[in-house]
Amino acid sequence: MGESPHTVTTMPTVRQPGCPFDPPAELLDARRHGPISRYTFPGGRPGWLITGFDLVRSVLADSRFSSRKELLLHPTIDYGDFEAPPAPPGEFLLMDEPRHGRYRKPLMGKFTVRRMRLLTERVEQITADHLDAMEKAGPPTDLVTAFAKPIPAIMICELLGVPYEDRGSFQEQVDSFMNGETSDEDLIAAYTATQEYLARLVAAKRANPADDVLSDLTDGDLTDEELKGMALILLAAGIDTTANMLSLGAFALLRNPEQLAALRADPALADRAVEELLRYLGVAKTFMRTALEDAEVGGRTIKAGSPVILSYNTANRDPERFADPHVLDLRRQDGGHLAFGHGIHQCLGQQLARVEMRVAFPALVDRFPALRLAVPPEEVALRPETADIYGVKSLPVTWDV
Amino acid sequence: MRITVDAERCVGSGMCVLTAGEVFDQRQDDGKVIVLRPEPPAEMRDSVREAVDLCPAAAIVFSLH
């Protein structure tokens, strides 16, 4: 079995000052010791932390590791003997087969490469509208509210059929689930309001189907409860993830001016640039699994029932997989990052996210050639590591008029 | 090179279409993989290999004969 593995005693809560784009130092240190470390979960249950690219990818593809909500353990909070219930109907992120497939399958045809590419013109139009508004209002502005949040939110709401006038309040509620800083009381209030809203929305689609994904889904054997859960997952994923990629990505480009200049000079670089920003930033940074049976991983035996933390962002900086992993290089040739995960849960909306980013990043740098931070970089407020999705809270920018 | 796919395993990520769009497509109704060119020419082999590697569900295999 060889020497005993490296042990990580606590999960980091903050990143190194001055390194907002790099995984926390403790996780990079764990990777230096090896791709798999021991980690004791709060409450004393022994588990594992996987930081190496190959091992993260293999566990994600391995059906012996479960995503079922009732089996997962929180990496940093001790809930004592509280037993989490299974994921509610439709919330297929935290399910295994066959339950997961019942919900993913009817959605797969809605998010194909071809269908998402057909949305390019619409993304261009929405992006141009928001850049126009920024230009008209003049500098400075917060790029999160003026640009990063509205573009993906409008797209997912239009796809699903959320009426325009409902978008604002819905977006705020989703933000409060995801920012990692909402009190329990406010979380429950936001969750309840969202559930009630989605129940009304599903009922409205069933009564008056329109040309949208949610209406299409009513034409099957899915119950209203299931549709509500599916809508929640799609909206939350569509609203928060790409928004954080756009704002954190803009921040990263502004901190790497030669890369920003390369993207502006060569729009054909956009596809590669998006993949590299996904690898380098990885806003969906960790996911959990629990072993259903004893499994050998990287020469260690993960016992049945053991919880496992998969560190996507450390895997995407694995020096055995990527040359100079901590360098943002928009011309990088080696693809295959794990920003969208791997295995049966790999991001359903990834082709939409790609279209949004491929349009939005080049349009932003093209419209504002002198775009720069309006505050010193260390004053840009970051989400805490406790947030499921990493990002900036706001990004004050300015430009010449 | 000959490509076969297991549509049952396919999870509709679209990675094969993104990587080797001349060789793969997705069915419009259920998003599952379709092979446009089961015997792709030699110059497409690298992108097909990459598509095989990137498939999250290991739904694509190819043989050299």
Automatic annotation (TrEMBL), chain A:
<keyword id="KW-0408">Iron</keyword>
<dbReference type="GO" id="GO:0016705">
    <property type="term" value="F:oxidoreductase activity, acting on paired donors, with incorporation or reduction of molecular oxygen"/>
</dbReference>
<dbReference type="Pfam" id="PF00067">
    <property type="entry name" value="p450"/>
</dbReference>
<dbReference type="GO" id="GO:0004497">
    <property type="term" value="F:monooxygenase activity"/>
</dbReference>
<dbReference type="GO" id="GO:0020037">
    <property type="term" value="F:heme binding"/>
</dbReference>
<comment type="similarity">
    <text>Belongs to the cytochrome P450 family.</text>
</comment>
<protein>
    <submittedName>
        <fullName>Cytochrome P450</fullName>
    </submittedName>
</protein>
<keyword id="KW-0503">Monooxygenase</keyword>
<dbReference type="GO" id="GO:0005506">
    <property type="term" value="F:iron ion binding"/>
</dbReference>
<keyword id="KW-0479">Metal-binding</keyword>
<keyword id="KW-0349">Heme</keyword>
<keyword id="KW-0560">Oxidoreductase</keyword>
<dbReference type="InterPro" id="IPR001128">
    <property type="entry name" value="Cyt_P450"/>
</dbReference>
<dbReference type="InterPro" id="IPR036396">
    <property type="entry name" value="Cyt_P450_sf"/>
</dbReference>
<dbReference type="InterPro" id="IPR017972">
    <property type="entry name" value="Cyt_P450_CS"/>
</dbReference>
<dbReference type="InterPro" id="IPR002397">
    <property type="entry name" value="Cyt_P450_B"/>
</dbReference>
Automatic annotation (TrEMBL), chain B:
<dbReference type="Pfam" id="PF13370">
    <property type="entry name" value="Fer4_13"/>
</dbReference>
<keyword id="KW-0479">Metal-binding</keyword>
<keyword id="KW-0813">Transport</keyword>
<protein>
    <recommendedName>
        <fullName>Ferredoxin</fullName>
    </recommendedName>
</protein>
<dbReference type="GO" id="GO:0005506">
    <property type="term" value="F:iron ion binding"/>
</dbReference>
<dbReference type="GO" id="GO:0051538">
    <property type="term" value="F:3 iron, 4 sulfur cluster binding"/>
</dbReference>
<dbReference type="GO" id="GO:0009055">
    <property type="term" value="F:electron transfer activity"/>
</dbReference>
<keyword id="KW-0003">3Fe-4S</keyword>
<dbReference type="InterPro" id="IPR051269">
    <property type="entry name" value="Fe-S_cluster_ET"/>
</dbReference>
<dbReference type="InterPro" id="IPR001080">
    <property type="entry name" value="3Fe4S_ferredoxin"/>
</dbReference>
<keyword id="KW-0408">Iron</keyword>
<comment type="function">
    <text>Ferredoxins are iron-sulfur proteins that transfer electrons in a wide variety of metabolic reactions.</text>
</comment>
<keyword id="KW-0411">Iron-sulfur</keyword>
<keyword id="KW-0249">Electron transport</keyword>
